[in-house]
Amino acid sequence: MPEIITIGEPLVQFNAMTPGPLRYVGYFEKHVAGAEANVAVAAVRMGLTAGLISKVGDDEFGLDVLQTLSSRGVDVSQVKVEKNGFTGIYFVQRGYPIPGKSSVVYYRRGSAASHLAPSDVDPSYLRGAKLLHLTGITPALSDSCRETCIAAIKLARQLGLKVSFDTNIRLKLWSSSDARNAILPIIPYVNLLFTDNDDSRILMGSQGSSAAYALMSKGPEIVVLKGGAKGATAYTKSGPVEEPAFKVNVVDPTGAGDAFAGVFISGYLKGWKLQECLRAGNAAGSLVVTVRGDQENIPGEQDIRAFLEEYSQVETKK
Ligand code: KDG
User: Fold this and answer.
1) CA of 229 to the centre of ligand 1 (A)
2) Which atom, in ligand 1's list, is nearest to the CA of 13?
């Protein structure tokens, strides 16, 4: 039984080898990604056990997802293969029109994972786990995916699991008002909420500490505001805890937030202080942005320590 269970769509990512508009890109590098799968890989790198509940198509990309995630230590026993279904893919455009930023083009509508239904969540798989992690991407995929998220979260709480949720609002998948209407009812069931200023403006009409405390008043014990290159802040009843980000060379920021969340959650389950969770999460996010691909550079504890040792020396030398 894995300690951390995630539910969501694993995707095959085609990452542009060169920055610029996709129409001029000649070569792409293939990776396995998907926000929840990325979090599961981060948990495994941190020494925890993790499993994914999902569906892939009976195609080559489905095989790629299954082989890659299991080779990375994620339990894929609950990833069903849908006959005649297809596995979602997406392309990453890098560095254009904003240097250092990426954008995505999805080919996933009607994918196998969008057919996830509450019956795909086996209560005996959740029983005994420590934490269920979901994101705002899955409820955007279809009505049955949204129902699956709600059913799984309620079941997890009944079974005594902690629930973490990353708002991850993808406006290429749904409108702001649909996102708000689907995500706000989920928040009261969440123990540990990850969000950022863009998402909190959509959800609460505000940002920063006022949004964090307003979200916390709906139920979560901890609200973590991810600020990317600006660092991250965790809000609890005892006040905010802040950690700055590290300066690194950005190749592709896609997936950094998932590495941050996965490492933060793992630290939280290990009983680390919030400051340590934030610092380790920032280190993981920093390492992920320096390469193409969401999962390859997610560090384990030892590499996080090495990174922090080097970077705190850089900081004190300044
Ligand atoms: O957070 C990175 C993810 O956005 C990426 O891997 C693709 O899961 C994905 C999505 O739905 O955007």
Assistant:
1) 18
2) 6
**Angle at which helices 60-71 and 35-45 cross, to 10°:** 20
* 311 C-alpha to ligand 1 centroid (Å): 28
Per-residue pLDDT tens for 156-204? 999 999 999 999 999 999 999 999 999 999 999 999 999 999 999 999 9
Task: List the domain range (segments joined by +) for residue 30.
Answer: 4-312
From 29, 30, 258, 292, the mutation candidate for ligand 1 (largest count of ligand atoms within 8 A of CB) is 258
Residue 317 in this model has a pLDDT that exceeds 60? no
In a domain, 305, yes or no: yes
Number of folded domains in the chain? 1
Which residues, other chains included, contact 154 with Cβ-Cβ below 8 Å and sequence gap of 6+? 189
User: What is the secondary structure of 182-193 as a DSSP string?
Assistant: HHTTTGGG-SEE
